[in-house]
Design goal:
Layout (H helix, E strand, L loop, with lengths): L3 E6 L6 H18 L4 E6 L5 H7 L5 E5 L16 H6 L4 E4 L2 H6 L4 H13 L3 E6 L3 H5 L3 H12 L5 H4 L2 E5 L13 H19 L1 H5 L3 E3 L5 H8 L6 E4 L6 H8 L5
Parallel strand pairs: 1-2, 1-8, 2-3, 3-4, 4-5, 5-6, 6-7
Helix pairs in contact: 5-7, 7-9
Bound molecules: 1,3-dihydroxyacetonephosphate.
The site of 1,3-dihydroxyacetonephosphate has 14 residues, from strand 8.
Length: about 250
């Protein structure tokens, strides 16, 4: 059975001390809560990875990065390899976030190399997909997401899929306060699962967690996470506030 996951994407927020304070608070909350049915991931800026990984005491909490290089090492000033991330104790990496796709012009071919680099370094991947508003208005959202998945996961085996979480993040919902409705989210998550089933078979698709991202907050997580194919969330703004993030985690009772 697939796991329930609440992941935070801090983006470029929080200095070292602020970030470690937040990571410590969430970890303590999870130690006390003794939940066993939900995995919590905090995807931090690179500077937090090592110390945040060291301070974890709850088995339910993991640390992840927000991107990695497609290269393994060499003269690539400013880049961070997947193996470097892994050496900090972090266990996840987000790949294909819409902000990387748009601001850094990352295309599906490059993202596919990054997915392979991450899996080679034994990191788990949170692979993001989602359409922009114009694509939805033209009824192209399914085609766009299907292409992102097919090209981004090209050459990835069913065994590798065990180490991949999908995040559906409609770009028009990110940081806008506009959330996909529960029905819009369910429809796309079920569609994503059908795309995975076509390529990897029904069982692998059923075992893959698909997270919703885009203005997810305590006031809407209950209805979004109640949908059959929504296995949790990738949370931006609300993951920066301990209370909000922990309330979202508590959407899952166990
Ligand atoms: P917000 O929750 O701030 O809309 O961000 C979502 C997101 O991009 C998570 O990766």
């Amino acid at each position: 059975m697939r796991r329930k996951i609440v992941a935070g994407n801090w983006k470029m927020n929080l200095n070292l001390h602020e970030g470690l304070d937040l990571a410590r608070s969430v970890d303590r909350y999870m130690q006390k809560s003794k939940k066993t049915d939900v995995d919590v991931i905090m995807c931090t800026p690179y500077i937090h990875l090592s110390k945040a990984s060291e301070l974890l005491a709850s088995p339910a909490v993991s640390i992840g990065a927000q991107d990695c290089s497609d290269k393994s090492s060499g003269a690539y000033t400013g880049e961070i390899s997947a193996a470097m991330i892994s050496s900090t104790g972090a266990t996840y990496v987000i790949i294909g976030h819409s902000e990387r796709r748009s601001y850094h012009k990352e295309d599906n071919e490059l993202l596919n190399k990054k997915v392979k680099a991450a899996l080679d370094a034994r990191l788990k991947v949170i692979f993001c997909c989602g359409e922009v508003l114009e694509e939805r208005e033209k009824n192209l959202h399914r085609d766009v997401v299907s292409k992102q998945l097919r090209e981004g996961l090209a050459g990835i085996s069913a065994d590798d899929l065990d180490n991949i979480v999908i995040a559906y993040e409609p770009v028009w919902a990110i940081g806008t306060g506009v959330t996909a409705s529960k029905d819009q989210a369910q429809e796309m998550h079920a569609y994503i699962r059908s795309v995975l089933a076509e390529k990897y078979g029904k069982e692998s698709a059923e075992n893959t967690a698909i997270l919703y991202g885009g203005s997810c907050k305590p006031s809407n997580s209950v209805e979004l996470f109640s949908m059959n194919d929504v296995d949790g969330g990738l949370i931006g703004g609300a993951s920066l506030k301990e209370d909000d993030f922990c309330t979202i985690i508590d959407t899952f009772p166990g």
